[in-house]
Amino acid sequence: MFHSDPHHIVYDPATARLSSPKRKRAFILISLSFLTLLIYARVANHDFIPYDDDRYITANPAVQQGLTLQSLGWAFTSAHASNWHPLTWISHMIDYELFGLNPTGHHLVNLLLHLINTVVLFVAFTRMTAGFWQSLFVAAMFALHPLHVESVAWAAERKDVLSMLFFALTLWTYARYVERPSRKKFVPVILFAMLGVLSKPMLVTIPFVLLLLDYWPLRRIESSQPELVGTWEHPPPKKWKSRGSLLRALVWEKFWLFVIAVAVSNITVRVQSFGGTVSSVESTPLAMRLSNAAISYITYIRKMFWPSDLAVFYPHTGETITTLSVIAATVLLIITALVVLGMKRFRYLAVGWFLYLGTLVPVIGLVQVGAQSFADRYTYIPLTGLFVMIAWGSGELLERFKFRQAVLTAAGLAAVLACSVVTWNQVSHWRDGITLFEHTLSVTENNWVAHHNLAWELHRKGRLAEAQHHFEETLRIHPTLAVAHYNLGRVHFDQDRNDDARHSFEQALALDPSHQATHIAVGKMLERDSSEAAASPTKPFWRAISYYRQTLEAFPDLEEVHYELGIRLVEDGRHNEAAEHFQQTLKLNPFHQQARRQLMVLGKID
């Protein structure tokens, strides 16, 4: 470091090591990353969760095939899990190639992506705003806020951390583009935005986010000060005649981003409609959706300031317009009006607020997908807008306060500490399925999803009496859930209570006649009945063969029933007929490895 005496300048490398702004920045980012790593380190010892982790990883034959031409084609054409996010599927395939079904690797990749997202978000905001401490606060809150635990600690939520990576890279490359605009420098913006929507369609709002950033902090929407267009240092060659013409040019600049957004939105709606997860207007009226959306917006804000009673699933109440929803909508309108009235002076408030509102639109429930009323994971990107409002607003609020810097530093450290403590505790709930869903039941009411998934995990671990209780609670809340009747029947079957099992299976098929797992369970029950009824049973499966054939006459596209019938036919020595059903299984599900192996054993396939 240089001493103040100009006649006696001595360079001390030891004290100069951290005096460089770049070194300070690196040291602070490393410290933040280390703290985040410390808070989340326990995920390395966590198990998979019996809720979507099966559909995405542990019971997904396409993912477990790894990176092949067939699985890559599936990633871009499949409607599995009622989502279209090919890049997310590919990332899971890569994980399986590297780690198999060891959950440690899958969880650590999520954590690594979260750490990278934190750094890139910080770099992007410092580049756009030159506000080092404000950007650091935004990055720290993003890294450590308890609402983000779900996105990081849940292996199936790879789509969140992966899409956020490309969202942050889009912001960073856009900031670089604005400094000296050119078509060549806009290509990475389009590329990262496209990779983002291929990871999670929620990012279709990217072109609108970039328009907000044009207003602040990039300040490109200026008619009276055309020198601010492009960048402060490098004005454009032409001056704009009006704000309207400038705005049209900025929108046109993002033409391909809008094209990508429209295309991906259309594909996603089709996929979700095909998968049956989009609720109809009859089952979820518009009034109910609007009511839930207003409450959700306010709930997320409340949970940002006071993150309590966090759960993996929040049941939809099914209520339409209520006093609470009217209050929530009124609060939203008041905040929006205040932001608009003050937007000329406090641009960051408008950008932060509309960033929050806008990025939540695809998942706020106007198009109801799934049975949840809202979800913590949906805030992974949108909370950034609220963090921006707090970071820049608190500084301006205390602008003339004598101890401004000390108060802001203390408040920032207190927020980081509080979030760290709550996040540390929240991470512990994600240890395994039993821990997660027991916690969820302790903080929510009438949560049939939590009861059902807890029961499934208890059953898997052989705790049959407890599993029966929670399946019965599931049906108390949701009596028309066919899969719950089926699972309760499986518990009865394992308890050798055949009459109760048969009744539960009948209930399941009455509600969903094509539920193939139930048909297979009925077949196994018929085998048991035949075995017990015959004094010297040699072929106890003959009734199952007959039942499976009758089932396939009514529902010919049940690949698992074809497979089970094939197995029984092999046992009966009818190999050619069995091979036909194995081939039909592969036709319906090309990734059915057990059917492929059976054909290899029978010599029907190489």
Q: What does this protein look like?
A:
There is one protein chain. This protein is mainly α and 606 residues long. The protein has 28 helices and 2 strands. The chain has helices at 13-16, 21-40, 53-58, 69-77, 86-99, 103-129, 132-144, 149-153, 158-179, 183-199, 206-215, 243-253, 255-275, 286-305, 323-341, 347-360, 383-397, 404-428, 433-443, 448-460, 464-477, 482-494, 498-511, 516-533, 542-554, 559-571, 575-588, 593-601; strands at 314-315, 372-374. The protein has a two-stranded antiparallel sheet. The chain starts with 12 loop residues before the first helix and ends in a 5-residue tail after the last helix.
Quick summary of this structure?
It contains 28 helices and 2 strands. The chain is mostly helical. The N terminus is likely disordered.
Shape assignment: elongated
Low-pLDDT sequence parts: 1-19, 223-240, 277-282
Output the structural class.
mainly alpha
Q: Tell me roughly what share of residues is in helical segments.
A: 55-70%
Number of β-strand runs: 2
Cα-atom Rg, whole angstroms? 28 Å
Read across the widest sheet, the strand sequence of neighbours is 1-2
Instruction: Give me the strand/helix succession.
Output: HHHHHHHHHHHHHHEHHEHHHHHHHHHHHH
pLDDT averaged residue by residue: 89
N-C termini distance: 73 Å
Count of helices? 28
In percent, how much strand structure appears in the residues? under 5%
Question: Describe the biggest sheet?
Answer: 2 strands, antiparallel
What are the defining features of this structure?
mainly alpha, single chain, two-stranded antiparallel sheet, 606 residues, 2 strands
